[in-house]
Specification:
Length: 134
């Protein structure tokens, strides 16, 4: 999302058809929102934090999935079978709970893990190279 909002070419170009398509619902986890805000938070940049948050929440059809008790149980299952760290498992669990049909991301480690959803990298969508920016 942040790459789209910042018009980070070529990632924004890969995300635009998905984010701007009127028939595709878009969701992110509250964990994703927290991770997105962590960079500016490190520097105490409240203005950037506010701009990013408002920008994400203004996207069409955006759903911010909560991380609650039920999602925690799903995250434990994802983490148990995939070996991913809790934040990653939590993001995936949020998608599963919201009945997502796939996950689009930049972390190629997810591709080789049993996460319970199809994973598409931004590079497969025409957005950049296949290296993880993480």
């Amino acid at each position: 999302m942040i790459m789209y909002l910042q018009n980070d070419v070529p990632y924004a170009e890969g995300l635009a058809p998905i984010i701007e398509h009127p028939g595709i619902p878009i969701g992110i986890s509250t964990i994703t929102l927290a991770e997105t805000l962590a960079g500016p938070a490190r520097f105490g940049d409240e203005l950037s934090m506010r701009r990013i948050r408002v920008g994400i929440l203004k996207l069409p059809r955006i759903v911010v999935a909560p991380f609650d008790e039920e999602t925690a149980v799903i995250a434990a299952r994802v983490r148990g079978r995939s070996g991913l760290k809790l934040p990653d498992a939590g993001i995936i669990a949020s998608a599963i709970r919201e009945r997502a049909v796939c996950i689009v991301g930049n972390d190629l480690r997810w591709r080789s893990k049993e996460i319970g959803l199809p994973f598409f990298s931004l590079s497969e969508l025409g957005g950049g190279d296949s290296k993880s920016r993480r």
